[in-house]
Design a protein that fits this description.
Length: about 375
């Protein structure tokens, strides 16, 4: 069990990260919290850290049922939200989405958000013309792959990250008002509603990072500290295959707690948890016979959603093929406090969360990641 390998001492976080990241022998996941399963008084804790889980009360009157349904969310009163003793400000919401609505957000992440003028990792070593219309340049090849034909990797499969709103400058490693593209209105609306339910009315989504995880991907140990205002929460939306998420303390020596991030799950890091170390060491292998989580196979029912829309069967065939071995994570944050402006001097340093750390192992890919602003800490 993982509990036996981690003790207080030098970089306990790194030890557990390596444990879950290893391939052979595969790691034991018995100590990983699974919020999709019922908790009771006897089983509501992590053996590894002896962290107790408790039901978290949300503000169900902060946003109407009609408003959340338009974004594809269940009524707030029906959300299953949890907190962890020892991690004040951390909230885990187990799939608050209405059946079928996740498909819309997956399509946005794969088809819409990688489009220009948004920025992606491919822009670092390809011309703007080459990285235009990533979806359109990839779908024909993906369809042939779906028929069993061997084809080279598409641009969509080479995506590792996309940034929205305020973008990082990869040279100065700062946010800048000059490096900005309009933040997607529908994602802003979704984030605003989730933040309000968690006690943060008026949350202003200003920057987003999409990480694209393949089956061999991981996200290194880091702290999200680039934003100028740390009083506002960081929101994380997970779609696709399951991942292991490690949440630690303010020091690398603090033992982390491991939890599963399933498709549709939402994490909110606020208050003291806003600046805690965290990481994603691995994507969990799909159980034999399963292709996609059941929640992703559901189609959107007819309704007045306003924000979201049903996904065409043609688009979803591409999305579902991609998600068979992949995961898309969307983090949303508010960069500036209300009324705050950017100082003239350098103001924020690039956190490792700004790019998904693909662990492919070759010197060629290491060089490419270095050129793309990647930092390694595994």
């Amino acid at each position: 069990m993982a509990a036996s390998i981690v003790e207080h001492g030098e970089d306990a976080f790194r030890k557990l990260f390596k444990f879950y990241k290893r391939r052979s022998p595969p790691p034991d996941f018995s100590d990983v919290l699974n919020f999709s399963k019922p908790f009771n008084d006897k089983a509501s804790h992590s053996v590894l850290t002896n962290i107790s889980v408790f039901a978290c009360e949300l503000n169900s009157t902060s946003v109407s049922e009609e408003d959340v349904s338009k974004a594809g969310l269940q009524p707030v009163k029906d959300w299953r939200a949890f907190g962890l003793h020892g991690y004040p400000g951390f909230i885990f919401i187990s799939n608050p989405f209405l059946p079928g609505s996740q498909q819309y957000w997956v399509k946005q992440g794969l088809k819409i958000y990688p489009q220009k003028p948004n920025v992606c990792n491919l822009d670092m070593h390809m011309s703007p013309v080459e990285t235009e219309n990533i979806w359109e340049k990839s779908i024909d090849v993906i369809r042939r792959k779906g028929c069993g034909k061997r084809e080279p990797k598409t641009l969509l499969e080479k995506l590792r990250w996309v940034t929205l709103g305020y973008h990082y400058d990869w040279n100065s490693k700062t946010y800048s008002p000059d490096h900005y593209t309009p933040f997607p209105k529908e994602l802003h609306s979704l984030s605003h509603k989730v933040a309000a339910a968690c006690g943060f009315p008026g949350f202003n989504a200003e920057a987003g990072i999409l990480n694209y995880y393949r089956s061999d991907s991981s996200l290194g140990i880091h702290v999200d500290e680039s934003e100028l205002d740390h009083t506002r929460p960081l929101l994380s939306f997970s779609f696709g295959q399951t991942a292991v998420f490690l949440l630690g303390g303010t020091k690398r020596e603090d033992r982390p707690t491991a939890m599963f991030m399933n498709s549709g799950d939402v994490m909110v890091m606020s208050g003291p948890s806003r600046l805690l170390y965290h990481a994603v060491p691995c994507i969990v292998p799909t159980p034999a016979g399963d292709v996609l989580p059941p929640c992703l196979s559901q189609r959107l029912e007819t309704g007045d959603y306003d924000i979201i829309q049903s996904v065409s069967e043609e688009d979803w065939n591409v999305c579902s093929w991609y998600l068979q071995t992949s995961r898309v994570n969307v983090t949303v944050r508010q960069v500036l406090a209300s009324g705050q402006t950017f100082p003239s001097s350098q103001v924020s340093h690039l956190s490792m969360d700004s790019c998904e750390k693909s662990e492919e192992g070759t010197q060629k890919n290491k060089k490419r990641k270095s050129e793309s602003g990647y930092e390694r800490d595994t």
